[in-house]
């Protein structure tokens, strides 16, 4: 697996813009740190983190066409918010272009942007690492979210989804409802923990 990761790094370095490549490396290392904390497979976590944005460099129109060409079914929400599609097409590329057979890794790439209810440990790790990696600096809640990530992963995901939904609403952007479903799911876990339910 290590050799595969080194080869993939070289490939992505050529394909992705420098900042996106840097982000991908950073996410892959944070994935391994979270994997250490939560006892997940280190190499699968590194691999999923490295590949999570392998389709991010395609523009909205282009990625819709690429999905249609590969007969990847698209939801109405995804057509209205094509920014989320790099996760779905990235999962397809991971499987069909990069030869990834592991469905856990493929699903972690698939759900890294919107999240979904009841995510697997690997899905949670990539979703969280993408938000907290050290090169990120936009979200105001980052210092708190970063520390919660290493204390309680479900609670951290609740904060990330809450922040993302508030941000999208503030900006007036269309929201893929998968994130709303994920938020409701993790909000319930949060409320049970706080004794509010
Ligand atoms: N449910 C959603 N609906 C619409 N846009 C979303 C949704 N979830 C996340 N986004 C937006 O998609 C963009 C890409 O997110 P993400 O994949 O997390 O980042 P990156 O690809 O840069 O690692 C962000 O601007 C985020 O706000």
Describe this structure in a few short sentences.
α9 runs antiparallel to α10 and α10 packs across α11. The protein is 69% helix and 0% strand.
Care to describe what's here?
Its EC number is 3.6.1.41. Keywords: Hydrolase, Iron, Metal-binding, Nucleotide-binding. Pfam families: HD. This protein has 197 residues and is an all-alpha fold. Helix content is 69%, strand content 0%. The protein has eleven helices and no strands. The mean pLDDT is 95. The structure holds adenosine-5'-diphosphate.
How do the helices and strands follow one another from N- to C-terminus? HHHHHHHHHHH
End-to-end gap? 44 Å
Q: In CATH terms, what is the fold-level topology of the domain at 2-137?
A: Hypothetical protein af1432
User: Which molecules are bound in this entry?
Assistant: adenosine-5'-diphosphate
Major beta sheet summary: none
In the CATH scheme, the class of the domain at 2-137 would be Mainly Alpha
What attributes characterize this protein structure?
single chain, about 200 residues, mainly alpha, Hypothetical protein af1432, about 0% strand, globular, binds adenosine-5'-diphosphate
SSE diagram, text form:
Layout: H1 2-15, H2 18-38, H3 42-51, H4 60-69, H5 76-80, H6 85-96, H7 103-110, H8 121-132, H9 142-149, H10 153-171, H11 177-193
The structure holds adenosine-5'-diphosphate.
Residues 53, 56, 81, 83-84, 112-114, 130, 164, 167-168, 173, 175-176, 179 line the site of adenosine-5'-diphosphate.
